[in-house]
Amino acid sequence: MNASWYEAAAAASVLGSAVVVGGGLVIAAALVWAVRLGIGVKRNEPRTPRSGEHPTLPESGPVHETHQRREPAEVPRAEETGRRLSPHELGSSGSRPSADQSRPRWDGNSGGSFGSGGPGGR
C-alpha cells in the first residue's frame, strides 16, 4: 500500500465525522425550533375557560359534608334463596344507611387504643 490509500481513508473518516456532527446539529436545531413553536402556540391560547369546562356551584349553594353511619348490606346465602345471585342482582353499593344514626362513643374505662393493655387515660 502506498501513502495515497492512507490519505483517502483519513479524508473519508474526517468527512464521515463531519456528516455525523452536522446531522446532530440539524436535529438539535429542529428540536429547539419545535419547542419554541409549542411555547408560542401555548402563549396565544385563550385563558378564559369555556362553558362547561369547569365545574360550577349548584343553584342550591355549596354542598356540605354529611356524616352518617352505614351498615353492610348482607348478601343472602344460596341455601336461603335456593339459587346463586348474579352480579347484576347484588346492587350497586356494599352498604346502606344504618337505622341507628347516633355517634358511637368509647367506653369510659378505655383509652380507645386497640391493644394498649393499659387502664386508659386515667
Describe this entry's structure for a reader.
By secondary structure, the protein is mainly alpha-helical. It has a domain at 7-42. Helix content is 38%, strand content 5%. It has two helices and two strands, in the order αβαβ. It has helices at 3-44, 78-81, and strands spanning 70-72, 95-97. The protein has a two-stranded antiparallel sheet with strand order 1-2. The termini are far apart. The model has no long low-confidence stretch (mean pLDDT 79).
User: The biggest beta sheet, please?
Assistant: 2 strands, antiparallel
Task: Report the C-alpha radius of gyration, rounded.
Answer: 37 Å
Q: Structural class, please?
A: mainly alpha
- Order of helical and strand elements: HEHE
Bulk shape: elongated
Number of DSSP helices?
Answer: 2
Question: How do the strands of the widest beta sheet line up side by side?
Answer: 1-2
Strand content: under 5%
Total number of beta strands: 2
Features:
122 residues; mainly alpha; 2 strands; Secreted protein; DUF6479
